[in-house]
Amino acid sequence: MKTWNAKPQEVERKWWLVDAENQTVGRLATRIANKLRGKDKPTFTPHVDTGDFVVVINADKMKFTGNKLDDKKYYSHSRFFGSLKETSAREMFEKDSPTIILKAVEGMLPKNRLSRQLLKKLKAYSGAEHPHQAQKLEALSAN
Fold first, then answer.
1. Cα 130-131-136 angle, rounded to 5 deg
2. Domains annotated on the chain, with CATH
3. What is the pLDDT of residues 38-93, one digit of tens each?
4. How far is the first Cα of the chain from the last one, in angstroms, to the nearest whole number?
5. Using CA atoms in the order 102, 105, 106, 110, what is the torsion angle rounded to 10 degrees?
6. How many whole angstroms separate alpha carbon 121 and alpha carbon 5?
7. What are the start-end ranges of the E strands in 99-140?
8. Residue 24 pairs with which residues in a beta bridge?
9. What's the number of CA atoms in the CB half-sphere (13 Å) around residue 2?
10. Once rounded to an integer, what is the mean pLDDT over residues 132-139?
C-alpha cells in the first residue's frame, strides 16, 4: 500500500463565515486555525495547504476572559534600539480589533512559510459588512 499525500492543485477549498460576537478570542482562534490548516478534513497533509478560507465578522464584539483585556500586552518593534512598543489588549481592541484575532491565529499556526501562506486566507472585519458576498460563505457553527 502506498502513502497518499494531498497535492495543492487537487484541494477543494470552501469559504467559511465566522461571527465573532460574544465569542472568546482563544477558543475562536483555535477553530479558525484548524479550518485554515485543513485539520478537519480527511485529506489533511501537514506540509501542504489543504485548508479553507475563513471570513471573521464582528471582531469588535469578541470578548476576553478574566483580566486579559488589561493584563495582556502586544509588542512591536522595528529592530532599532529603543523602538519596542507595548500596547494593551484594551487599546488594541479600540484601535484595531481585527488585528487581535489575526495575531491569536498566527500564534497557533506553525512558524514556517506555510503558515504565512495560510494567514493570507484569513479575512477579519470589525463590522458585519464584508466584501466576500460572491464566495457563497457557509456559516461556521459556534460550538
1. 95
2. 13-128 (3.90.1180.10)
3. 999 999 999 999 999 999 999 999 999 999 999 999 999 998 999 999 999 999 99
4. 37
5. -160
6. 21
7. 122-124, 138-139
8. 63
9. 3
10. 91
